[in-house]
Amino acid sequence: MTRAEKAKAEGMPLLLPPAGDAAYLVAHLFEVGPLGWAGMGEVPISHVDIQAWQANMGIELEAWEARALRRMSGAYVDQLAKSREPACVAPWAPETLPEDARAVVHNKVKSAFSALAQISTKTGRPRHHDRRHR
What is the pTM of this model? Predict the structure, then answer.
């Protein structure tokens, strides 16, 4: 489940900026990619990818639109890399959380650690040993 899906399931609103007149470019980005692959992992889509997509779809983008798609893809790849860090704040989340949201997060973390402690107590050994012996 992605962070967005989890947030929706928990009733957290996604504070995404409205795409406005650029909504069609966002739709194009997700049809083209939104990313490519290279030997080291994800990369922004290339101009060759965009050109091939245009030819296949019968769409002719203006030069600025193709550049915008490539920049949007680069931003997507950058955020994807940042989002792999557990402490990364979701891009749609506010910079500072309201106090009640902080309490919810605190309680979830506390519950997770309590559950791990109970598992360790029941088995008599740390949780990481369980994984090695399976």
Answer: 0.62
Helix (H) or strand (E) run with residue 128 in it: helix 127-132
| C-alpha torsion angle, residues 35, 36, 42, 43 (rounded to 10) | -90
Q: What does the block give as tokens for 132? A: 């090695």
Number of H helices, E strands in the chain: 6, 2
**Cross-strand partners of 37:** 42
Per-10-residue mean pLDDT, the chain, length 134: 79 81 93 91 96 97 97 93 82 66 72 72 56 49
Q: 44 is written with which tokens?
A: 């922004």
Tokens 């309490």 found at: 103
